[in-house]
Design brief:
This protein has helices at about 15-25, 45-55, 80-85, 105-115, 130-140, 170-175, 175-180, 195, 205-210, 215-235, 245-250, 300-310; strands spanning about 5-10, 30-35, 65, 120-125, 145-155, 190, 200, 240, 255-260, 265, 275-280, 290-295. It is about 35% helix and about 20% strand. The radius of gyration is 18 Å and the shape is globular. It has a single domain (about 5-310), classed as Alpha-Beta Complex (Inosine-uridine Nucleoside N-ribohydrolase, Chain A). It has 12 helices and 12 strands. The longest helix has 21 residues, at about 215-235. By secondary structure, it is an alpha/beta fold. The structure holds beta-D-ribofuranose (BDR) and calcium ion (CA). Beta-D-ribofuranose binds near residues 13, 16, 80, 162 and 170.
Length: about 325
């Protein structure tokens, strides 16, 4: 099988960095056409810079990085420095990037790429709020039938929420964008908190990364060490969840994950449950299924893959 052509849409974020590095370390399975940054964990000025820092860390300065939307469609941006630190990539001391940001807007890059390539050959991988993807779909509705699949990290059913009691961060930050994406008719696969909260970076798993003794694995271990402080305090577990690399791991080894094809709707009206992913896991409505919603993961298989691929960089 030839590698899958993908665009990563992201708000790095240490776990976004892990997702990008996993993609870059897997050229047999993934051909990364470009990275589009979005405002999320930290403002856009930092997420686009962080995306370039991560590419340089991996020695992949040929990956084009674009800045996309700097605010949600209709709401004020909510950020997560309390988790990711002031820069979004706190932990390791990484140099400012030399590689330049592309002039083109990220949304235009997504639209142009989908129009220029054969139908259903490009997979979009959103790891942050869905603002760029929804804007592209709004501005160019013809691209919906050209997208092969959207594989995204976001939402929750059994785990409910992490930024509010009812909502996961990526969906909560731009619920109107998520609503557009989930109603788009595009094939969607969701890696929700129900999966990512099982992917815990325990001390043994950090040690396995450090044992590779490479600059990339060391930097990743330092990033994880940083956000562990927040997450282990919050969840009382012996490791923090590593959310976003579940998306790229799914592209490389889908057999690590299992889920159900169900209806998922986004709450955009209620103040109390804004951004909730109302997932019909038990099939109690007659609403048509619109997304493959993952529920389980082979956790050790995931970490073996991550460690092995990061060690290649
Ligand atoms: C998601 O929110 C962000 O903080 C992480 O990068 C991840 O994409 C988890 O809820
Ligand atoms: Ca993210």
């Amino acid at each position: 099988m030839p590698p899958k052509d993908i665009i990563i849409d992201t708000d790095p974020g240490q776990d976004d960095a892990a997702a990008i590095l996993l993609a870059l370390g897997s050229p047999d399975e993934i051909n990364l056409l470009g990275i589009t940054a979005v405002a999320g964990n930290v403002p856009l000025a930092l997420t686009q810079k962080n995306a370039r820092i991560v590419c340089e860390l991996a020695g992949k300065t040929n990956v084009p990085v674009f800045a996309g939307c700097d605010a949600p469609l209709v709401r004020k941006l909510v950020t997560a420095e309390h988790v990711h630190g002031k820069t979004g990539l706190d932990g390791p001391a990484l140099p400012d990037p030399d590689m330049s940001l592309q002039d083109q807007h990220g949304v235009d890059f997504i639209i142009e790429t989908l129009r220029a390539r054969p139908v259903e050959t490009v997979t979009l991988c959103p790891l942050g709020p869905l603002t760029n993807i929804a804007t592209a779909l709004q501005r160019a509705p013809d691209i919906a039938e050209r997208i092969q699949e959207i594989v995204l990290m976001g939402g929750a059913y059994f785990e409910v929420g992490n930024i509010t009691p009812a909502a996961e961060f990526n969906i909560y930050v731009d619920p109107e964008a998520a609503d557009i994406v989930f109603k788009s008719g595009v094939k969607i696969t969701v890696l929700p908190l129900d999966v990512t909260h099982k992917v815990l970076v325990t001390p043994e798993r950090i040690n396995a990364l450090r044992a590779q003794a490479t600059p990339v694995c060391d930097a990743m271990a330092d990033m994880v060490d940083f956000f562990e402080r927040f997450d282990t305090g919050k969840y009382g577990s012996d490791g923090a969840p590593l959310h976003d690399p579940c998306v790229t791991a799914y592209l490389i080894k889908p057999e690590l994950f299992s889920g159900r094809f169900i209806n998922v709707e986004i709450e955009t009206l209620s103040e109390l449950t804004l951004g909730m992913t109302v997932a019909d896991w038990w099939g109690v409505t007659d609403r048509a299924p619109n997304a493959k919603f993952m529920g389980d993961v082979d956790v050790q298989g995931f970490f073996n893959l991550l460690t092995e691929r990061l060690a290649r960089l």
